[in-house]
Amino acid sequence: ELTFDRTNKHVLFDRIIPKPTGPGSMSCWFRPLANSYSALIMQNTTKGNNGIYQVSGTSIEVYPYGLTGGSFTVGKWTHMSVTWDGSTARLYINGLQAVTSSTNPLFDVSNLGYEPNESANGGIDDVLLHCVCLPPSSVRLLASRRGIAYELAPRRRSRIFTGGFKAYWAA
């Protein structure tokens, strides 16, 4: 787990991880420590602050792509996935589909937990980026328990880590 405290703590990658040119998926576990707007997974902020945010209240926003919804509890670990199959975007919270959109929500990723005005306040873990659209069954598997991605990755026993795996980060 990487813990952020709304100050200067964040992870900046040494290179931008480009978004998939077609279908793709992004997912992570997060644990917000306050009921406030904050950044989770972000694009290079010089390109427009695209990102996945915890919205004030208890929902997730994939900005600026029209995906806002879901429900989570402050202080509790929650799994979030965003998928794009080429025509429909889906936001999942704890393995359940929360909202859909017809706009591609995927973006280049350059950091975790940082945006100049809304840095993260809480924990993030098991960040996964794929250049395939994960099916609902894989999303449910990832949401079944924190750390399962780490357990599956070295053994490659799951479709989650074959044919489209792009990047993975866990503490």
- Please trace the helix and strand order, writing H or E for each element: EEEEEEEEEEEEHHE
Content-based structural category: mainly beta
| Count of separate DSSP helical elements | 2
Outline: globular
β-strand number:
13
Question: Uncertain regions: pLDDT < 50 for 5+ in a row?
Answer: none
Give the CA-CA distance, first to last residue. 5 Å
Considering the chains and any ligands shown, give keywords for the structure.
171 residues, 6-stranded antiparallel β-sheet, single chain, 44% strand, 7-stranded antiparallel β-sheet
Overview of the structural elements:
- With 171 residues, the chain is mainly β.
- The chain has two helices and 13 strands; from the N terminus they run ββββββββββββααβ.
- Strand 5 and strand 6 form a beta hairpin.
- The longest helix is centred in the last third of the chain and has 9 residues.
- The model has no long low-confidence stretch (mean pLDDT 77).
Topology:
Layout: E1 2-5, E2 11-17, E3 24-32, E4 38-42, E5 51-55, E6 59-63, E7 67-69, E8 78-84, E9 89-93, E10 96-101, E11 109-112, E12 121-130, H1 136-144, H2 148-152, E13 165-169
Antiparallel strand pairs: 1-12, 2-11, 3-8, 3-12, 4-5, 4-11, 5-6, 6-7, 8-9, 9-10, 12-13
Short description:
With 171 residues, this protein is mainly beta.
